[in-house]
Amino acid sequence: MVLPPGFKSDKPNQACKLLRSLYGLRQASRQWNVKLTRALQAAGFKQSSADPSLFTKAKDDAFLALLIYVDDILVAGTSPSQIQSLKQMLDDAFKIKDLGTLNYFLGIEALRTPSGLHLCQRKYILDILAENGFLDSKPSNTPCVTGQKLTNYEGNLLAKPEVYRKLVGKLLYLTHTRPDISYSVQQLSQFVDKPRDSHLTAAHRVLRYLKRSPGKGLFFPSTSQIKLQGFSDSDWASCAETRKSITSFCIYLGDSLISWKTKKQATISRSSSEAEYRALASTVCEVQWLVYLLADLQITITESIPIFCDNKSAIAIGENHVFHERTKHIEIDCHVVRQKVCEGLIKLMAVSTLQQTADGFTKALPKILFDNFHDKLGIRDIHAPAYGGVMKQ
Q1: 301-330: average pLDDT
Q2: 236, 278 contact by CB (below 8 A)
Q3: How far apart are CA 275 and CA 88, in angstroms?
Q4: Averaged over 350-368, what is the pLDDT?
Q5: Residues β-bridged to residue 387
């Protein structure tokens, strides 16, 4: 810091005492979060232990929820009068700017209709296409070539790797509303340190897929049931270089997809059953977290949550305590599956590979199977003529 002009003091070695947090300082965002949290807690709000950015308040049959991202706040509630009181309290304390009904938040477009809530990132996608020169490109039916295996050695190193890194970073953020490209982006993100032209070509394939329908996004129907169910899957030793497997899962609340993941496992699995069991462990942990989060939203899950897996051996390991020879080398934390089965939180169910929704998060599917996978995700294009919209490229 620089002393203000005209400041004079006869005492040497004086220090300035910071009375306010300034933008640009390392502690600015932390101090802002502390002050906002104290103000909300003083107003009767409770900070969620499952998600610290969520604050809830229940009073007299009314319920309020706040979701905070730095200084951007989403407010939802059952009482308009209490929402107005909350906004007045925040305005008195911080001088807020009320933007009205939710329609655009952090690059995500939201549209509420009597049938439900639609979230998409159409403008974000069009900006990516324009930046990379793909607005007039030929659309692709799938985000990646079936059976394609990217490696660290095929192709030439890019002269400007920052172009690839920037593109992959934007595609990662896009997966918040486009789970259909999650597997492709997971594959691309493994090569950001030393990208090659083959990796950039694969990334361009994703752009051509997005060009086909930039207005697609997640749809959350208003009539959906409050019932959790999950799908867990794994692709054993799919990485040609490390022989590690891929963990994937997707979890639904009623008919709405609310959580999904595709990630390379940290260790090598000795069998497909072990790889599936590790994927089940990740799914169970996510389900447990969602149960805690729903409890903060005044929603109690009383029934056992079904988790569908297409590997009967993995289900047997999760339900049977006698499989010592097969499981003694597996880490203890993976056996959280058995614990939650015994507690009644989850119920393991067998499902065929063709009906396994999470299969599309583990591998590149051909067009027919990919279209089936796409339909199960609940993705809609609200800008398409079929939904009353008009496509504008």
Answers
A1: 80
A2: no
A3: 53
A4: 90
A5: none
pLDDT digit string (tens) for 33-50? 888 999 999 999 999 999
Name the CATH superfamily housing domain 226-366: Ribonuclease H-like superfamily/Ribonuclease H (3.30.420.10)
Q: How far is CA 154 from CA 151, 240, 326, in A?
A: 6, 12, 37
Q: Are 287 and 305 in contact (CB under 8 A)?
A: yes
317 contacts 334 by C-beta, under 8 angstroms = no
HSE, side-chain direction, 13 A CA sphere, residue 316: 9
Strand partners of residue 58: 63
Q: Identify the residue whose tokens are 């109690």.
A: 300
CA–CA separation, 273 vs 299, rounded Å? 34
Closest CA to 181 of 149, 240, 221, 140: 140
Residue spans of beta strands (DSSP E) within 236-361: 246-253, 256-264, 305-309, 346-350
Measured distance CA(119)–CA(378) in Å, rounded: 11
* CB-based contact 58:65 (threshold 8 Å): no
Q: Which amino acid is at 333?
A: D
- How does DSSP assign 151-178, residue by residue? -SSSSPBPS-HHHHHHHHHHHHHHTTT-
User: Which H or E run contains 57?
Assistant: strand 54-59
pTM of the model: 0.86
Tokens of 284: 């169970």
Domain segments of the chain as ranges: 28-100, 119-215, 226-366
Amino acid at 74: L
CATH architecture of residue range(s) 28-100: 2-Layer Sandwich (3.30)
Is residue 61 pLDDT above 60, yes or no?
yes
